[in-house]
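It is worth pausing here to work through a concrete case rather than discussing structure prediction in the abstract. The textbook approach is simple: state the sequence, then state the predicted structure, then interpret. We follow exactly that order.
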Amino acid sequence: MRWLVDGMNVIGTRPDKWWKDRDAAMLKLVDQLERWAAEEGEDVVVVFERQPSPPIRSTVIDVRHAPKPKANAGDDEIVRLLKADAQPQAIRVVTSDRGLSERAYAHGATVEGADSFRSRIESI
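Step two, the predicted structure:
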C-alpha cells in the first residue's frame, strides 16, 4: 500500500495546541510517520499546505508541500500526485476532508480517515 497523507488534517485530529507552533507539529507528525513506515514497511508521502521552517528532511518518507500556501493547497497537491500516478488505485489517501475524499475516490484511490490513521501511527 502506498499512502498520501494530508498532513495538517492528521495534525488537526488532536486538540493538543498544535496551532501554537505549526512547524513543531509538522516535525512531530513526520517523526511518527517515519517510525510507523519503517516498522510496517509502508511507502508514505506526507503533504503539507506550506513548507515548514526549517524544511523537514527524511530518508524514510517523502515530505512534500504545496507550491504556494493557500486554502486547499495541500489538497490540490495530493490530487496532482494522484493524477500523475500510473496506479492511483494502489494509493490510500489519508484525510477527513470530504471534498478531498471525493476527489481521491474519483481518481481511483481509497481513503482512510485522519483520526483512525493517527491512532494507527501512534500505536507504534
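Step three, interpretation. The chain has five helices and five strands. The beta strands are 2-6, 43-48, 62-65, 91-94, 110-112.
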